[in-house]
Amino acid sequence: MTPSEPPAGTPAHPALLRMRKGVQPTTSSELFFDLVFIFTITQLSHYLIEHPGWRGGGRTALLLALVWFVWIYTTWLTNWLHPDRGPVRTMLIGVALGSLLLSAAIPQSFAGTGLLFAVVYVTVQVGRTIFALWAVQGTPWLVDGFQKSLPWIVGTSVLMVVGGLVGGAAREALWASAVVLDVVGLLIGYPLPGRGRSRPERWMVEGGHLAERCAAFVLIALGESILVTGITLTSHLDRVTSGAFLLAFAGSVALWWVYFARSAAAATEVVAHAGDRTGALSRVAFNFLHPVIVAGVIVTSAGDERLLREPGAPATEDVVMLTLGGPALFLAGHAAYQALLWRTLPTSRITAVVVLLALMPVCVGLGVPVAGCATVAVVVTVAVIVADRFRGVQSRGPRSPLR
After folding, report:
1. pTM (predicted TM-score)
2. Whether the Cβ atoms of residue 236 and residue 50 lie closer than 8 Å to each other
């Protein structure tokens, strides 16, 4: 059975289901839904800037994971349901509104707006799943998956609400437990006593659509980083800050080049033709690896803002973590993504990550200016691009796992 063939006994084209012929295009309804997450990325970037250090970074990662669950599970649903059908479009608008409220609660999510954040998150996750159960009636292979996932989602919802009612480290622990439970549930197929588990080969995923949707989210994150640096530049428009802006812009271009210039289209092709492996491949590539890539953009964006504020100041430990750690996180996530799809070791990205991590204590110990750290990050990332171009001359392109 291929992803374009429905199981026996399934209606060929139920009213709300997408057609399964080639890579499904991204619709205007999906793009409108994505617009909300520009605000989300901005909120996460500002939260990281205002809460530096390991604990602030951990909280930002936790918030990103929860927001990513909202976006990616909605994206999976629109992989099966047509976004331009009236009920599905209404659902998307409702989730967009919930996501906007969720983003507004981010700055004080570990303080006064924690309960609001939790309640909105639970409402969106549970509400969307209940809608899905109604929308996929007549397609047993989809009904079975959503029926098995709903109790797990309810379980994580309880942890979220209880976490919203308490505070401090208890809230962090409960919300982190919800994230872990969600990840474990997806990995093992949401098993239920007497019902078994949901198996990826039965998910009938159109992998090319998911790849394009996640690439669009990465582009949104990169666009937000440029927006942040542009806004910061307007408040300090002088020669030094303009130079820092060009450096930050070069970094954004480098990250874009690494992801999009060569591998994005090839990745879409690989996932779209993975056959029975599409479900399992998509689960790891898009649910687990892409938030790491997005996190790298967010951390880099925060580092760029610090760069524009004080380009000549000595780089403290927190600033170095942002300026060098952001590109390192991005490259590590992209390395894992490439390794998963092409079953090869992306040595240039791994080497770059090692170099960036090794330079962190050096930059702090020598009191290197913030601009110097940013220059190093850009140079190392550009070195990855050069290595890619060199390999492109030596071969015709990435090896497909299907060959």
Report:
1. 0.90
2. no
